[in-house]
Amino acid sequence: xxxxxxxxxxxxxxxxxxxxxxxxxxxxxxxxxxxxxxxxxxxxxxxxxxxxxxxxxxxxxxxxxxxxxxxxxxxxxxxxxxxxxxxxxxxxxxxxxxxxxxxxxxxxxxxxxxxxxxxxxxxxxxxxxxxxxxxxxxxxxxxxxxxxxxxxxxxxxxxxxxxxxxxxxxxxxxxxxxxxxxxxxxxxxxxxxxxxxxxxxxxxxxxxxxxxxxxxxxxxxxxxxxxxxxxxxxxxxxxxxxxxxxxxxxxxxxxxxxxxxxxxxxxxxxxxxxxxxxxxxxxxxxxxxxxxxxxxxxxxxxxxxxxxxxxxxxxxxxxxxxxxxxxxxxxxxxxxxxxxxxxxxxxxxxxxxxxxxxxxxxxxxxxxxxxxxx
Length: 374
What we know:
Helix content: under 10%
Number of helices: 3
Number of domains: 1
Shape: globular
């Protein structure tokens, strides 16, 4: 009930306040700003509706598939507001519909009072995977790679420092957060904990990331909608999750290139988990588990700001010490039509999943998604 009351309050404030055009980036030029003098507020929202004309008989949501039978799905429904105040403070508060109700998504405040340094506090994305950090509205394909969703920590409550050197040529981030909580199945990935009751069940997790963009800003999203000049970014990150029962060390490297409507993105994520307390089982039962996800994506914007095609390949291994059905290849290809850049678009894509060992599953899917975002 408290979350629903907060949701209603957000809408009431937005409806009552005066508005003017927000002079943001090209992708945000048509958004609305509430200008209160010392404080500015803009509405944020994301709606993604999917239709699955075809899914295999073995498709299962817990295994990362988009649907379990042909039909419709509300993939994301988010609402909230973000803005700035007093010239040196930024903030965001947003909610998202879930199968269990309405949950907090982002709830953070940032202070940028020092040159080239920003301090963030609250619930937000941790600075690890490039594909995970890229906004869900700005993916070239309908969703992020399967392996990224399974292995990358997304949002958590904590404190983050971010800075840059050389006007953005080198960017860095480091933070400490409540510990990451893995779901019971591999493809469900890490859970998001709002910490409204504090850090009750985990220790702390530590994350650091570095990005190098020697040719200037890489731009928002993955697709090169503007068909611009050559830009490139190379990144890497590490995290250590000091869990009460399981401790995990993970690392990743990634690259993103854009030129003349073409984009290429690749990422490798690896992690290793072991019990916090060494069990007395001997050498027969392994106590350390390693996982791996490798992805490469290539896309081209055929018509500037209108029509694009994208192909992605993934290699996923949920246990690098065992050859089983968790060793998988996934290939996704699709076409994207942009009605108004990333704010209104449609995408049609087909995904083929191939188990490298064990029983082959009938889990291919054909998916159509319509997106509206602010």
